[in-house]
Write a structure and sequence with these properties.
Shape: elongated
Helix content: 25-40%
Largest sheet: 5 strands, mixed
């Protein structure tokens, strides 16, 4: 065999072995592929399914609306309106998408501004573009179908009564949590619990399919307040009018149900619109009826008279000599407007005699007046639960502090809120029984506490009726057709450790109607400017209008119709 034949045989054998090797390798690769396919579809299928779902299935929250706040008749005071939030994932947003032009127009910004925001936060996965937009606008943005741009549904709080109820109701922040008032006080009850649902999303985070609901959204509980919205509107209108006409710094008015202690109206000036807080003045933010303190002045004199009757030292017919119209107490002179001479207890109330009240207070046990003040609720929180409520001040003065004891008896040296002042009159209107104040509608009357005998309460109430008579200081508090009991107060404002000579607080507090008390009303006007500043000139007319309108709204029968003049028929 020649050498060339041998070479051909060797080359042919080499090619055969290479083909066999390649074929074997192909078989090994095919076997590996088949083995891997079998593994993927059998052993690893569950694992791979979980990994795929983790990259495409998401659990999202379903918003739950906040509970309603309503008045005692079910009128809405705070409701949750559906809105939407527009947000972006800058890392997944195409900043060159042509739809961004339309998005910028809908958001009310320039395209370059929008693109700049996305570029500046491109390492982040979440930024807000605009919050609390209307559902219609959100739908238009959603239909643009821009990758990385998302729309979330939520709720925005709306207050139908606006500034009329804002100090009581309060408001929520942009995240929906209570910031002031009853929104804050009942945050846990009002807050809803969001639901959960499983959705499928694409690689850009867009929801392409709703899989199932995991947990239903639970709305917050409704809260029903004690106020009557119609009374609230009316009282707010009257208070705003007196502040404007007398150029006062501020004012508050409270209307209580004498039988239950429920707050039927609580209004303040200045106020603000909770639906638009862009120009909010901090001076109008607080609920002055429960946060602002002032010295009540002569409005507490009926309570001092009640303490005198309860001491057993005095009766309704007891006479006190106020001559010569002033009294010296430890070097301090306490004066009346003029010399009223001898006055019985009714006369002391009618004329608002500081001298007569001082003699009564200093003749009794050192704690007699203060104890009654405390029992009717002065110097302590009313228990309303309102955020930021102040308890006021009711100092304890030992027996030797006679000047302080004297001034306390006619309303100086202690401080109260308008709500406290109104609450302190409830025992006079409720047969001597004090009641806790409630800002929520009560299903049944609260349990009260007796603080004075019923006959004492009745006697003092009848004495207070003379304040509204032509010879009293509160003539302008009269309500046509109804018997009114009340007391005026004109207090020098405390300033810089002393008292201002030309700034006053005008106060009137009263009960109506006397024959069957239904309402207790307190009005406080801070620093009225002008010729009129007495409580009987500024606060009393507000009481008259609020009380008269409220009694008619509540269908309370008149208890004092004026007598009709007799007519004589002449026969011819």
């Amino acid at each position: 065999m020649s050498d060339s034949n041998q070479d051909r045989i060797v080359q042919s054998a080499g090619r055969s072995w290479r083909l066999i090797l390649i074929f074997v390798l192909l078989l090994v690769v095919a076997a590996g592929i088949v083995s891997k396919l079998v593994s993927l579809y059998t052993l690893d299928q569950a694992f791979l399914q979980r990994q795929g779902d983790a990259r495409s299935l998401r659990t999202t929250l379903t918003p739950a609306h906040r509970g309603l706040i309503t008045d005692r008749n079910g009128e809405p005071l705070a409701v949750s309106a559906p809105v939407a939030t527009i947000w972006a994932n800058p890392s997944r947003t195409d900043r060159f998408a042509p739809e961004l032009d339309r998005l910028a127009v809908l958001l009310g910004v320039k395209r370059q501004e929008l693109v700049s925001r996305l570029e500046n936060h491109q390492t982040k996965q979440f930024i807000y573009l605009k919050r609390q937009v209307t559902p219609e606008l959100a739908e238009q943005i959603d239909q643009l179908n821009i990758g990385g741009i998302h729309v979330d549904r939520e709720y925005k709080r709306y207050y139908p009564a606006g500034e009329v109820t804002t100090h009581l109701v309060g408001f929520t922040g942009i995240d929906g949590s209570g910031q002031e008032g009853m929104e804050l006080a009942y945050e846990r009850a009002l807050t809803g619990h969001p639901g959960k649902k499983l959705v499928m999303q694409d690689r850009l985070g867009r929801t392409i399919k709703h899989i199932k609901s995991l947990d239903e959204a639970k709305p917050g509980r409704d809260v029903q307040l004690s106020i009557d919205l119609h009374l609230q509107y009316m009282a707010y209108r009257e208070l705003k009018a007196v502040v404007q006409s007398h150029h006062a710094d501020s004012a508050s008015a409270v209307v209580l149900d004498a039988r239950t202690g429920e707050v039927l109206a609580m209004v303040n000036q200045p106020s603000y619109n909770p639906n638009d807080r862009s120009h909010l003045d901090p001076k109008g933010l607080r609920n002055r009826a429960v946060t602002d303190l002032f010295e009540p002045g002569s409005t507490v004199k009926p309570l001092t008279i009640a303490a005198a009757l309860m001491s057993g030292q005095y009766t309704v017919d007891s006479v006190v000599d106020t001559t010569p119209g002033y009294i010296r107490v430890k070097g301090r002179t306490i004066r009346d407007h003029r010399d009223y001479g001898k006055l019985d207890l009714t006369g002391i109330i009618t004329k608002s005699s500081n001298v007569g009240i001082t003699k009564l207070a200093l003749s009794m046990h050192a704690d007699a007046v203060r104890n009654l003040y405390e029992n009717v609720g002065l110097g302590q929180a009313t228990g309303s639960g309102f955020p930021g409520e102040r308890a006021g001040s009711l100092p304890y003065y030992p027996e030797k502090r006679v000047v302080e004891r004297a001034t306390m008896s006619y309303g100086y040296g202690l401080s109260v809120t308008p709500l406290q002042l109104a609450q302190s009159y409830i025992p006079l209107a409720n047969d001597g029984i004090a009641l806790p104040v409630s800002l929520l509608k009560l299903d049944e009357p609260a349990t009260g506490k007796r603080v004075m005998p019923a006959d004492v309460a009745h006697s003092v109430l009848e004495m207070m009726e003379t304040v509204i008579s032509p010879i009293g200081t509160g003539r302008r508090a009269a309500v046509y057709g109804y018997r009114v009991a009340g007391k005026t107060g004109t207090v020098h404002k405390a300033m810089n450790g002393g008292y201002s000579g030309d700034q006053y607080i005008s106060v009137f507090s009263g009960v109506v109607p006397i024959s069957d008390p239904r309402l207790v009303i307190a009005v406080m006007v801070n620093n009225p400017r002008g010729q009129e500043y007495y409580g009987g000139e500024v606060a009393a007319p507000v009481f008259s209008r609020v009380a008269g309108n409220a009694l008619r709204m509540l269908n309370v029968a008149p208890d004092q119709w004026p007598e009709k003049p007799s007519t004589t028929v002449v026969m011819k």
